[in-house]
Structures are given as structure tokens and as C-alpha cells.
UniProtKB/TrEMBL annotation:
Organism: Prauserella flavalba
Protein's name according to its UniProt entry: Nucleoside hydrolase
One Pfam match: IU_nuc_hydro
An example molecular function term from Gene Ontology annotations: purine nucleosidase activity
Gene Ontology BP terms: purine nucleoside catabolic process
Disordered, as annotated region: 72-100, 272-292
InterPro entries hit by this protein: Inosine/uridine_hydrolase_dom, IUNH, Ribo_hydro-like
Inosine/uridine-preferring nucleoside hydrolase domain residues: 5-307
Organism phylogeny: Bacteria, Bacillati, Actinomycetota, Actinomycetes, Pseudonocardiales
GO cellular component terms, semicolon-separated: cytosol
Length: 322
């Protein structure tokens, strides 16, 4: 097999695409999926993750439920206006019921056991709030060296989508995000809104996905509410597959171009709460001021071959061999 991967997720339409991307890639050893609150409550995100895996005929992949709320403050609101009442445009029930039972352990326990059992470093793709990952690093510090890297969908360098300053995943638990990104325990790659919005796919792309086969048609059928939201946001008929962009980088390192920068998260209660601040100034300028000059550095994704990425996503979701 290829990349050993665990996905931590809060499905969510783009999360569903991301899970399917990994589940259908024959060069990925998908060790497990853990769920977290976020776009909808934990019970719904867990149900959605299991049903997407069942759609992809991956009942071999264990799923464990994790944090139902942020580390410190309650989550102010969910993302139902974007993802629909159940997280999948009201169409979760149209997906197949999973044959495999939910793991009896919690997400952090499953993450720890999978890392302990792995014979090589594991990539983790957290594509929801970072609560489970912060708890893992706090509870099991000795396992940090078992993680090859974290490929995180979150943040926005130029602003947010939930507030003027903050992207939804980071805003949902800023304290957890700060712990993970500024903690220095594990190499991090951050895939922010600035890039994922540029990777948006249009109606023609979705049409090709729907025509690719039963799985593609089922994924496309999850998009109506999401499509309506993003068509207003983008100004054309299309969607932003944020989380699938991050999982693409987890599967094929280097498909996104990254630059190193210290990243911190604003954890105050003010209007900047949840902002991700990446200090990308020249080193000499940072050294002469009070910049974020100290480590750790996060690899921040800033560019990609947009059409190449879209074709990569479509090919994998259509079930083409790696």
C-alpha cells in the first residue's frame, strides 16, 4: 500500500468528498476515520462518515467518535446553512447503512492504538475542528514521533468565511488549533481558504463526477444545499471542496506548493477570535521587529496546478487506478 492515512473529520459535504477520495485511492492505506463536532453535531458527523465509507464499500475501515464540543468555550454555531440540516444537504439517509459497527472506544483511543500499531509514520488529515488532535497530543505525547505530519484544512491568511477574521474549523475551537499549530510536537501542513477557494469546481466538473458511476452520482447528489450556498458566494455554479484539497496533499505530497511560516491562532474573545496569523515577512524584517520569529514553522499551502488538481480529484473519485 501507499500512504498510511487517518482522517479526522466532521462531515459536511466537502468532508464526504475527502473521505471518498482517500477510500477510493488504491495507493492509500486508510487506517481509520475519527469524527468530531463541527458542521453538525457529533452524532450526525459520525453517521455521515460511516455512510460515506459504506458507499465506497470500505467497511474494513474503523470509525470512532470523538469530541462533541470544543476544549474550552461552547461552539457558537454550526454550519447547517452551508451543509444542510444533516450535514449532507438533507440526503444522508440516501447513503447505504454501514455493516461495521462504530468502534466502542473514543477517537483519541483509536488514534493512539492505530499509531502504536503502525510500522511507519502515519499521516493524519484533520479536516474539522482540531479538538481530537489537541487531545491526542496532550494525552499521548510519546506518540508524536509516530505521526509523519498533520495535513490540516483550516484557517485563512487573508480573512475568514465564518467571521471576517476566522475560518470555520479553526474558529470552532481556536484553543485546540493554537495548541496543534503552535505546539511544535508534529510537522504541520496547513491548507487555508486562500488556496481552497481557488480550487473550486464548477457545474461541468460535477456533471462529469455524476456521470462517472454510482459512487460519483451519489456524491454529486449530496451537494444541492452546498451548491446553492457556494453558487452565491463564488458568483458561478460550483462548490469549494476545501477538505478534499487537503486530503489530496496528504495522498500525494507536493501536489500543493507550500511555504514555511510560523502560524499562531488568535484565542481572545474579540472580533479576531479564530484568526490564523502566518508571519510570512522576510526573515531580516522579522528579526528586527516582534515577529513570530521563533519556531515551530508550519508549511502553508499557497499554490497548485489548479486544473491538474481538479483532474486528480475527479479521477480518484471516479475510481480510476492511481
Amino acid at each position: 500500500m501507499g500512504t498510511k492515512l487517518i482522517i479526522d473529520t466532521d462531515p459536511g459535504v466537502d468532508d464526504a468528498f475527502a473521505i471518498a477520495l482517500a477510500a477510493l485511492s488504491d495507493d492509500v492505506d486508510l487506517l481509520g476515520v475519527t469524527t468530531v463536532f463541527g458542521n453538525v453535531p457529533l452524532t450526525a458527523t459520525t453517521r455521515n462518515a460511516r455512510r460515506v465509507l459504506a458507499l465506497c464499500k470500505r467497511d474494513d475501515v474503523p470509525v470512532a467518535a470523538g469530541a462533541a464540543r470544543p476544549l474550552v468555550h461552547p461552539q457558537p454555531r454550526e454550519a447547517r446553512p452551508v451543509h444542510g440540516s444533516d450535514g449532507l444537504s438533507g440526503r444522508s439517509a440516501a447513503l447505504p447503512e454501514p455493516a461495521r459497527e462504530l468502534e466502542p472506544t473514543d477517537a483519541v483511543t483509536l488514534l493512539a492504538s492505530l499509531l502504536e500499531a503502525a510500522d511507519e509514520p502515519v499521516t493524519i488529515a484533520p479536516i474539522g475542528p482540531l479538538t481530537n488532535i489537541a487531545a491526542l497530543l496532550a494525552a499521548h505525547p510519546a506518540l508524536a514521533d509516530r505521526i509523519g505530519r498533520l495535513v490540516i484544512m483550516g484557517g485563512g491568511l487573508a480573512g475568514g468565511n465564518t467571521t471576517a477574521a476566522a475560518e470555520f474549523n479553526v474558529w470552532s475551537d481556536p484553543e485546540a488549533a493554537h495548541r496543534v499549530l503552535a505546539g511544535g510536537e508534529v510537522p504541520c501542513t496547513l491548507v487555508p481558504l486562500d488556496l481552497t477557494h481557488r480550487c473550486a469546481v464548477d457545474a461541468a466538473w460535477l456533471g462529469r463526477l455524476a456521470a462517472s458511476g454510482p459512487v460519483g452520482a451519489a456524491l454529486d447528489a449530496l451537494t444541492p444545499d452546498y451548491l446553492a450556498h457556494y453558487s452565491r458566494t463564488l458568483g458561478f455554479e460550483g462548490i469549494v471542496v476545501h477538505d478534499a484539497v487537503a486530503v489530496a496533499e496528504a495522498i500525494r505530497p507536493g501536489i500543493l506548493r507550500t511555504v514555511p511560516a510560523p502560524v499562531r491562532v488568535e484565542c481572545s474573545a474579540g472580533p479576531g477570535r479564530g484568526a490564523t496569523i502566518a508571519d510570512r515577512r522576510p526573515q531580516a524584517q522579522k528579526a528586527d521587529t516582534d515577529g513570530l520569529t521563533g519556531g515551530p514553522f508550519t508549511q502553508v499551502a499557497v499554490d497548485t496546478d489548479l486544473e491538474g488538481l481538479r483532474e486528480f480529484l475527479l479521477g480518484r473519485l471516479a475510481g480510476r487506478p492511481a
